[in-house]
Structures are given as structure tokens and as C-alpha cells.
Backbone:
């Protein structure tokens, strides 16, 4: 993450546990793993008021919680505050500083990066032809923008995104960031979303649904041909990184 120094320092007291939790007490072993030895340029002994120490402690704690090499950043942030909304907001804030996660993690996590970014857009108005954060998206514009953050260029319309594949065989377990498509059939795709997760036993996606609505998380069927919406069916899914 490419954090501005003053922002990083200001964020530490509010976004991170008390320094004593990281340096002593019953969690001493994990604390030592999180904190150091202190990085070059930091204070001696390490201090939460030193920006170098603070940023490295934050990064090491995230790695301890499973985010090493970008493996599961969403879960690592969630481990601190146990709030999906908080984790999504933090990741979106990191992206906004100008260096995308795709520049620092393995390409295989592109789907996770894309869906995390899309989830951060929940509440943005649907606008036909929209592709701008904070302004509006249509379905394929949201998908295209999300994967652009992850370093992958997509076609602009849902049918072209489906045709580009690679398409998943029916019954393949979905992974976060897989594209899921709807319409009259494989040659008549009219809607696309990003698979997000399972919620209360239901498969859910994040999508920009239709005029008058907002980017949201909603359930969908995973059997090709199953009815979805007023007149569409679930067509299938693609996975951009195998």
C-alpha cells in the first residue's frame, strides 16, 4: 500500500490496537512476530509514534493474520475488527492512495481484488453507460472498472465479456471475482455481476442491477437455465485467472 506518511501516522491510533497489545501480554508471541525486529529507519526501541515502526507493525500484523503476499487481505483486516464493511472500506481507502493491490500481489488473486473493489462501490447509483466510482455504474461498467483495478482489461459490454471467457463448466464451484451472466441464453447475455460469497446458505453476487437501483449484493441461482429476475435466466460463469 502506498500510504501518504501523514495519513499513515494519523490512522494508526484509530485503526490499530494499542501498542501494548502488540508488544506485551498474553499475545506476546504473535506480537513479536507482528512488530519486529524494528525496520531500518525506525525508533529504538520501536514506537507507535514513529511512522516507519507504525507502518511496518501494521503490515506485519496483516501478514500474521493471513495477508502475506496478498493471500487473503480481506480476511486479515476482518480479523482485527470483525466487520466486513470495515474491511471493505479499509481496502478501498488503500486503493485510493494510487497503488492498486494488483501491483503488489500475485496475479492469481485478481478475482479477489476485483470483487473487494466492487463491494466497496455498494450504494453507488445505477447509470446506463456508467463506469465511474461515486457517480454511477451499469452492470458491465462495474465489472470492467473492478478488473481494471486488478490489472486486467475487459471488454465493455456484458455479451462481449461472456464471449471472452474462459467459461466454467456447469457445476464448477465459484470463486470470488468469477463473472456470472444472465439473459436469454449464451447468445443473448444482458447482465453480469461478480460472485462474492455464500450468505445464509445462498450464493450472492455484487452487481449494478437496473435503472432506479444501486450497486448491491443479491442472491442468484447457479444452475444454467434457472430463472432470474422478471424474464432472464442464469447463463453461466467465467473465470479470468485460472
Residues:
Amino acid at each position: 500500500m502506498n500510504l501518504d506518511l501523514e495519513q499513515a501516522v494519523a490512522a494508526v491510533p484509530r485503526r490499530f490496537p494499542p501498542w501494548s497489545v502488540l508488544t506485551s501480554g498474553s499475545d506476546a508471541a504473535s506480537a513479536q512476530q507482528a512488530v519486529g525486529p524494528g525496520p531500518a529507519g525506525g525508533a529504538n526501541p520501536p514506537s507507535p509514534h514513529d511512522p516507519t515502526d507504525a507502518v511496518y507493525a501494521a503490515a506485519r500484523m496483516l501478514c500474521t493474520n493471513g495477508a502475506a503476499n496478498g493471500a487473503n487481505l480481506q480476511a486479515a483486516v476482518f480479523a482485527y475488527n470483525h466487520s466486513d464493511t470495515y474491511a471493505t472500506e479499509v481496502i478501498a481507502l488503500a486503493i485510493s492512495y494510487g497503488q492498486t493491490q494488483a501491483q503488489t500481489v500475485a496475479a492469481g488473486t485478481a478475482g479477489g481484488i476485483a470483487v473487494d473493489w466492487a463491494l466497496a462501490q455498494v450504494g453507488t447509483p445505477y447509470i446506463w453507460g456508467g463506469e465511474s466510482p461515486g457517480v454511477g455504474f451499469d452492470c458491465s461498467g462495474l465489472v470492467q472498472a473492478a478488473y481494471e483495478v486488478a490489472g486486467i482489461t475487459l471488454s465493455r459490454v456484458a455479451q462481449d465479456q461472456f464471449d471472452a471467457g474462459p467459461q466454467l463448466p456447469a457445476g464448477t464451484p465459484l470463486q470470488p471475482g468469477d463473472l456470472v451472466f444472465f439473459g436469454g441464453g449464451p447468445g443473448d447475455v444482458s447482465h453480469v455481476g461478480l460472485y462474492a460469497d455464500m450468505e445464509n446458505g445462498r450464493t450472492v453476487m455484487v452487481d449494478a442491477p437496473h435503472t432506479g437501483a444501486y450497486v448491491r449484493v443479491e442472491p442468484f441461482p447457479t444452475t444454467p437455465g434457472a430463472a432470474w429476475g422478471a424474464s432472464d435466466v442464469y447463463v453461466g460463469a467465467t473465470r479470468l485467472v485460472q
Notes: The beta strands are 131-132, 136-137, 179-183, 189-199, 202-207, 216-219, 227-228, 232-238. Residues 123 and 215 are 5 Å apart (CA to CA). The mean pLDDT is 75. The chain is about 40% helix and 15% strand.
